[in-house]
Amino acid sequence: MVITKIQAATDVKIITRLAAYIRVSSDSDDQIHSFSAQYRYYNNIAANSTDTILIDIYADEGITGTCTDKRDEFNRMMNDARKHKFDRVIVKSVTRFARNTKDCLEAVRELKQLGISVYFEENNIDTNKTEGETLITLLGMVAQNESLSISKNMRWGIQKRMQNGTYINCSSAYGYRYEDRKHLVDEPAADTVRRIFSDYLSGSGVKEIAEALEEETGETWHATKIRYILGNERYIGDSMFQKKYNTETLPFRKKRNRGELPRYYVEGTQEPIINRETFNAVQELLKQRENNNPQGHQYIFTKKIVCSHCGHSFKRVVIKGVVYWVCNYHNKNSKNCPMKPIPETAIQDAYIRMFNKLKRFGQEIISPAVSQLEDLIMKKQCGNQQILISRGELTAAREKMNQITRLHSNGILSDDIYNAQKKEIEAKIMRLKELMTAACDTDRIISTLDKLSDLMDILDEHEVMAEFDEAMFGLTIEKITALSENEIMFRLIGDVEFKETIERR
Q1: Are residues 467 and 334 in the same domain?
Q2: 166: exposed, middle or buried (C-beta count within 10 Å: 0-12, 13-18, 19+)?
Q3: Strand (E) or helix (H) holding 88
Q4: What average pLDDT does this structure show over 286-309?
Q5: Residues 240 and 315 both lie in one domain
Q6: CA end-to-end distance (rounded Å), the chain
Q7: Rounded CA gap, 61 and 59, in Å?
């Protein structure tokens, strides 16, 4: 046996694949300039290094660092890390990475387990070193306390402005646009609002209005959105402040105000789209329909129940004074289909049980589905070549914006030239963002995600159900499949399905 020793190479060059994470926490101009500056900075680091290549720059713009849930680019970075696309992450500071100690440590630990180090420049912390996690914990706690303090001060200021009527909500209702610290009527959206109110007073239901708008515009409209518009006081020019509030502990969560905090009703905050007489008439009709028959004389289960055996819909029948729902095919001839009639009260009771289970365990049941859809959207986005190209062009456009801003600040560009170029670049950025959205081909997934979010809002807003609520049924259920005379399947908005047994009274 001949054994030849092959010496280890001493001149093998190890290339580190670098990823950079950027976050700016507000939408102000100064922060946007900082955003572009960080892009330049990390590109230069890779360009001037012989043993480092920059794989990607993950940049979240204009959002908070207190929770990772809504940081799309941060989540994209973590997904790419799981695919081992890079070896090291560089970030300006712990506070840029996260202001929540728990989220920060969880992300760092996962990256470390994946063999990926994190370097925090300002803090001079490298997770390759043993003391790194201890320092991150301490700094993360300081950052978290800072965030809580800032949040508390901001809430106090907002509360005071609400009390004296000077608070301005920057978020405009559909039909308005926010401009120069004012909510201005935005046509033709405002005309759609007028039509919604008019159609509802003319006898149309919220679902019927939503379906008609979807068919005409090609846009997604939900019955819940129509219902929200019909009850929104902003359309008569007033505003109810503090309908929702943020919790005081991290991670901050938005909750519906059910009396925990005061609310403030301010008149004349913007130009009305609907007159008060029309608005008040709609509120009366809403109460009347929701208390009696929100479907407008149509039975609540009409066209909702389908037979699993033959595929025919169910119809309402009364047998010896008791209301039943029966398969149409079976009703014509019992030999056609074995499905037997189901008492209406049994279907109502099954819905109540299902709703209350969701009310209690909805977060645990629906949240995983939401996360899976978000991951699917992210994967589609990451794998799309058009998005990668557009992202590069978007970076270049932001860089150009930063350049003309510096030239203008130094007096080299006149106001007219600067404003013209700024407007052109902003339009390009908007087009690129729209192109990235269109290239994803995720409309159906996004629509499902929107419906699941609507469902979560409905569950959050309403209490445990004691009696069958027709309005709630109409908003949440798309279809019922009768599996047998003893079991039915509810399909809710968002394409989630739950089985319930039939218990006869």
Answers
A1: yes
A2: exposed
A3: strand 88-91
A4: 73
A5: no
A6: 87
A7: 6
Query: Which residue in 95, 90, 84 sits closest to 128, CA to CA?
Result: 90
Residue 293 near residue 285, CB atoms below 8 Å: no
172 three-class SS: coil
Structural domain includes residue 137: yes
Q: What is the CATH number of the domain that holds 269?
A: 3.90.1750.20
The DSSP call for residue 234 is G
* Together in a domain, 91 and 227: no
- The tokens for 207 are 């679902």
**pLDDT tens, position by position, 413-426:** 788 888 888 888 88
Range of the domain at 77: 16-149
Please give the distance of CA 141 from its chain centroid, rounded to a whole number.
28
Q: Decide if 231 is inside a domain.
A: yes
Query: Does residue 445 lie within any of the structural domains?
Result: no
Query: Tens of pLDDT along 59-104?
Result: 886 555 445 556 788 888 998 898 888 889 998 877 777 766 667 7
Indicate the pairing of strand 52-61 with strand 16-24.
Answer: parallel
Distance (Å, whole) CA 477 – CA 496: 10
CB-CB contact of 91 with 42 (8 Å)? no
Determine the Cα–Cα distance for residues 199 and 194; give it in Å rounded to an integer: 9
Say which residues have a Cβ less than 8 Å from residue 45's Cβ, sequence separation at least 6.
Answer: 18, 20, 52, 54, 90
Q: What is the CA radius of gyration of the chain?
A: 29
CA distance 500 to 487: 6
* Contact between 24 and 34 (Cβ < 8 Å): yes
Residues 240 and 349 in one domain: no
Q: From the CB of residue 69, how many other CB atoms can be counted at a distance below 10 Å?
A: 13
pTM, full prediction: 0.37
CA angle 25, 26, 30 (to 5 degrees): 110
Q: In this structure, what is the dihedral angle of CA atoms 444, 448, 450, 455, given to the nearest 10 degrees?
A: 170
Does residue 72 sit in the same domain as residue 105? yes
User: Would you list the DSSP string of 77-98?
Assistant: HHHHHHTT--SEEEES-HHHH-
Q: Which of 258, 291, 324 is the last residue of a domain?
A: 291
In a domain, 420, yes or no: no
CB 487 within 8 A of CB 476: no
Instruction: Give the bridge partners for 119, in sequence order.
Output: 90, 126
Q: Does 344 lie in the same domain as 271?
A: no
Give the model's pLDDT for residue 259: 65
Tokens at 415, concatenated? 């106001």
Q: Which amino acid is at 131?
A: E
Residue type at position 417: I
> How far, in Å, are 71, 87, 92, 258, 397 from residue 42 at the CA level?
20, 15, 10, 47, 17
